[in-house]
Amino acid sequence: MSDVRKVPQRSLRLDLKDGVLHGELAVPEDAEGLVVFAHGSGSSRFSPRNQQVARFFNDLGLGTLLLDLLTEDEQDIDEATREFRFDIPLLARRLVTVVDWLHGDECLQELVVGLFGASTGAAAALICAAQRHELVAAVVSRGGRTDLAGDALEHVRAPSLLIVGGEDDVVLALNRESLMRL
Q1: Measuring CA to CA, how many Å separate 160 from each of 33, 62, 126?
Q2: For residues 43, 46, 52 and 55, what is the CA-based torsion angle, rounded to 10 degrees?
Q3: pLDDT (tens digit, 9 = 90+) per residue, 77-134?
Q4: Which residues of 3-35 are buried (b: 16+ CB within 10 A; e: fewer)?
Q5: What whole-number distance in Å separates Cα of residue 131 and Cα of residue 53?
Q6: pLDDT tens-digit profile of 15-30?
Q7: For residue 19, what are the β-bridge partners?
Q8: Which candidate, 42, 38, 37, places its Cα nearest to that of 26?
Q9: Which residues pair with 46 in a beta bridge?
């Protein structure tokens, strides 16, 4: 029998100046850290892959926030036009706002925050880490377009792990270039 934790999960609604974001927050009892998932390229908090990774983190005693960085209307538009998934400044700005919110929440502010970015969400995570180096303890990029973080790469102080499939030659090359700038 495995030692699987029963972690309370709750839906989260964040009212921002430019829209409403939705997420799923799960924080095990005695958690010391929280991993914020920054999705990209058409993914959402309902992604089975990200939910599986979140459950793994929860089983390790880490909290997770599966977060949609686009509003529901923006997601609908993006599915048809791909207009928002490459709006890295928008994604990064929203992620910074979420990290600031976590830091200001009396129940969550003591948790060490890590960012888990996939695809274009990885660029947003790296920009956020550069802008909030005192609040972001680590960044993991899974198949991320880290190159889209641009000049922010030189300002990232958090330990960063870039994971790319060995057969993804294009993203692998882009991540190698980003690594040189980190």
Answers
A1: 16, 18, 9
A2: 130
A3: 888 888 888 999 999 999 999 999 999 999 999 999 999 999 999 999 999 999 999 9
A4: eeeebeeeebeeeeeeeebbbbbbbbeebebbb
A5: 26
A6: 999 899 999 999 999 9
A7: 16
A8: 37
A9: none
